[in-house]
Design a protein that fits this description.
467 residues; Enterococcus faecalis V583 fold; single chain; four-stranded antiparallel beta sheet; alpha+beta; v583 fold
Amino acid sequence: MNSNLFTSPLKVINIGLTSFKEALDQVETPSLQLAWRPPLVAADLYKCAQKTLASNSKQQTIATANKLAVEKLLAARPTLIGMGQASEVIPGMHQDLILHAGPPITWERMCGPMKGAVIGALIYEGRAPSFEAAEKLILDGCIKFDPCHEHQCVGPMAGVISPSMPVFIIKNESEGNLSFATMNEGLGKVLRYGANSSEVISRLKWMEQELYPLLAETLKAIGNLDLKAIMAQALHMGDEVHNRNRAATSLFFRQIAPVMAKLPGASEALSFINSNDHFFLNLSMAAAKASLDPLANVANSSLVYTMARNGTDFGIKIAGLGNRWFTGTAPIPKALYFPGYSEADANPDIGDSAITETYGVGGMAMAASPAIVQFVGGNVSDAINYTLQMYEITACENSSYQIPYLNFRGSPTAIDLLKVIDKNILPVINTGVAHKLPGVGQVGAGVLNAPSEPFVKAYLEFIESIK
């Protein structure tokens, strides 16, 4: 035993509750808080799981699978190849089907914004003249619901897609798979926040009848657009392509404007895109979706290839577990609220846009977008720390998406379920906050960590699946 232990000045390393370090700080005792957390699952379950994974053969099986999945993800080349109407291009779409964000959900469990958006879509489609008539159609069983993700689609917030809506078509050139997303409506009272007034329906009709033909013709004349290149450059210009899309939208606008400007009636369409900084958001989401979908069914891979929220549940999918959803309760974001609103007004987290974080941008790349903190709260050091922490739970760095502030380090990419559990660090997501009532719209923006429940459920299932 060191005889000087009780006479020498103390230098303390604290593991566990930070309150112990705070007490030492108060008496000016040098101390260091060790950034360590116990695993995310109960000790007995974790011990059992570790025993299952102890063999070198199983560890090698997972490592080999993850290497294959990472190769597919990094090789992805999401490209905008054109547009079409949902009923004509989306697999499995039919006249009685409404697609929505997040994991599967019934009408009875839908949150206010999603119900409002579904009603608005039925009015837009001419299936019902009013809220009451639309709800009767639903309650009579005439309308079916499916997640966007089950049909190669993604949608922000409520994420509603109905048969007549125009959609972008994105192709992953490296694998040949497609993804789809609607055009972004802009801010204010919009369908994705549950608004369904005549103003909202008129805008959707204008987008279908005027904007869509012009944009489709423009894209046909230009040819394929490399979305990965646009997103990569946007990160160098201060975007993270989830909550900040100003640079990406500007880059997209520069590509299309010279061609579209020559078409009759282009002025209003160009003004609409130019005035909507979030227009590129739906494209970045679809690019992420097209890049991640090839990971599905990579046997024995522990990588997360989907994160999505429906305003009630938060769901994930794991590559080695195929198309199965693992869900938990959607949390309410810690947000910076607009004047007049507070957390009491907020709907739980909603939307497919967490596919950007799953892809390694968005919240994962906040260090590339220091201006985002003005929108979601916090300060620049918070944005940097979020990104640095995410390297702890990801399988690779994507050199295509470089972060200038971090010496052009690639963004943390490919969330690894096993690392999430081992390190008790949950993926970070930056997000807009919807009012819990339909049609009010966005009331703030913030940051949150994914809930632990889906990851714990998936982990226990994954451990059993490794042969």
